[in-house]
């Protein structure tokens, strides 16, 4: 207790007391032999007990980390006794069938299997995801506390994994791949993640070395499973940032289940606190639903639907950014005219049929369609003054610009439209033969993308238009008269009508066996991916790649609970539309798939400390990349060169210690080391845009001493600076500047009025199953983190100044959650 007390004091400057019990949860639906729910079944373990409701649903909390027997009894059915041994915080779904005519099995022992640990998958608790504070709270917010996962922009839901970029991550919901908007260029335009945290039941994440059953990407897999409801329930989450409501329901015969969630978000709380004064009118909203109908025990039909609207109207007014040193303070003062209007509308629907042929064979057929229409229109004139700042303390003009060194302006224009329709049909199979498991799939995808890019930028310094870099003849005004034509500093114009057809397949084999006294697991598989590109004015192309992958895991019969894991494979990433489009907006159909030979060695060490369970996970990895498609990264916008003219490598170490630092809650500390470099056109190795060298993170849960109903959640992240301090037009070999280190701490306080252990039979709290109020402090130390630099120049000295574009400062939020 004292150790946890000191740790919490160090992190939060508060004192916390330890008193939560260690518990796991068993829940499910009890059915009869006709697959109908049985009500009023008694579920007991000693003095703890419950009964099933009209839908046959039950939920019971049991002590963790030891054998606990549950008795299922009913007056017209045979008794069933089941023994569970579950880790703390585990939620186990168990759906028994009670017999009327024959004896049940006397005792069944159920314990948590290690399948996910064997595969190198991290499983995250959905309740933790819903409670941990963050500027963009949700699944991605928790991912950023894991080793190897980075993002230096709290308003973005994108993330890079082990040196990869944002386009190199797979995201699945109930086995269906989902997508994100194409044109998004800044975190504050993104709004909502596709994943609705209120609907989530399981979250699995792999940072590399994943199996062949997952798709063709270079970096990671996020595998989400949405809930299967067992009773009617309403959840609501309200805060100054928006609102979310979800409704779960199940029919009386338990054949039809549905869960629907609606969300609204408004980022004004963050934008109003930034240095740029704006008129800002964002509308981020979506509606999602997951529906399942069980026609028979063997055939289930499900539908996943989503409709999303992101509307971003932005009218900047003024900005003042002070930078430099105490001895030489400098300020940039900008006056804006114009506005930006950005809108993304996305619609997604997937119909999935599952056929359980028998206990060993499952077949699946999925058809899905994703449609997005995106508009990005902007005309923004920025006129700036660069000058010296009054630093005299006590002066009434403290902080104001006293002497102007440089005057200039910048005009940005854009008229970008994109319409994409992606249709997919896929079949899967899963066959178990003794200790062997065979999985296979065949998938066809058609992508129809219509895209128009019109962007130009004019830069003016003291009345002289600046020509693009490395153009001839150069503009040497005011010293040498220039008589050439005036051209924009950058100018991109392209119209593309592109179709991409993909045929993908995989087959893999898994087996559990013994090797001497040790348990071992094998996995081997291969993927094949064929794609063709065609379109208006585009020469057709066709390419095919093969991707073999394998895993081996061994658990020695030692006193210490150790698990050793090795994975290797050849991973390809066939180009998506954005990777085919070069820096001038033109589609290059012959772009090859980027290739990565990936090797991972891992170890899981489970142990007890303070008589509570802990686990230390360590992984070392190496990636050798060829046919690399170089890109530039600005905020969250990626611009590819659409040329496979680079090689690269990445290696590193990821470590994570997680466990019950406070009884009954899971916390963890993460460390990551990464080095990734690329060699473009054989000019030598330089840092890649995602070379996040060091990463530290912590997620901590506790409660306030003497107030057990007050919970505290802490989220800490420290990342060393990314390359990216150079102008976007610069040769990366000339600029290898890094942005400042990223440091952020978010804390949330939640006072629980009603929960499962504290119910009320009368009064105003009676309708609630859960009710809590709290407040959150984002960026509690008010650290000025920068995402990019704005480059301005002094025409007299020709010096360029890098003015940081800062992210969100300290912000306060209030929040309430409730369940009916």
CA-atom Rg in angstroms:
28 Å
Number of helices: 7
Mean pLDDT: 84
Oligomer: single chain
Shape: globular
Q: Give unreliable regions as ranges.
A: 1-21, 102-113
| Helical residues, percent | under 10%
DSSP strand content: over 45%
* Class derived from helix and strand content: mainly beta
Query: What is the tally of beta strands?
Result: 43
State the end-to-end CA separation.
Answer: 35 Å
- Main beta-sheet annotation: 22 strands, antiparallel, barrel
Overview of this structure, please?
The protein is globular, with a radius of gyration of 28 Å. The longest helix is centred in the N-terminal third of the chain and has 11 residues, at 2-12. Mean pLDDT is 84; it is low at 1-21 and 102-113. The chain has 820 residues and is mostly beta strands. Helix content is 5%, strand content 58%. The protein has a 22-stranded antiparallel barrel. A five-stranded mixed β-sheet has the order 3-2-5-6-8, with no helix packed on it.
